[in-house]
Amino acid sequence: MGVSGTLEYLSDLVGSGGHKHKKKKKQLQTVELKVRMDCDGCELKVKNAISSMSGVKKVEINRKQQRVTVTGYVDSNKVLKKAKSTGKKAEIWPYVPYNLVAQPYAAQAYDKKAPPGYVRNVENTVTTGTVTRYEDPYTSMFSDDNPNACSIM
Fold first, then answer.
1. Those residues with Cβ within 8 angstroms of residue 120's Cβ, 6 or more apart along the chain or in another chain
2. What is the pLDDT of residues 52-75, one digit of tens each?
3. Same domain, 31 and 82
């Protein structure tokens, strides 16, 4: 350990008050919620509740899409909990642009309540293992690979 490493260690030790445990800093992130809002009063109630949280930098509301976008140093679960505390039905934004989904009009992804150009964000649950393959029994009966397979001759 060189001189600079020793000085850095000592400054960290003194700066933290002798404790080695460092608190993990939250990352700046954007949280999108779908919140059921009918009027200006609902919109204001949700905006005031979320704006009062510590770490929130910006709150944008699009009532037509029922969408709330929160930017700041926040946890998405805490923002969701705060939005639900207003008495409104809230969930994490479940939609993605339809061009990002493999089959946007599958039964699980298609949602009539989704904003234009969006579908529900679902995992690709359709697998090729569910498709049953029909195998013709006559093709394996006369196989050159298995000379004992011919039971007619």
1. 94, 95, 108, 109, 110, 111, 114
2. 999 999 999 998 889 999 999 999
3. yes
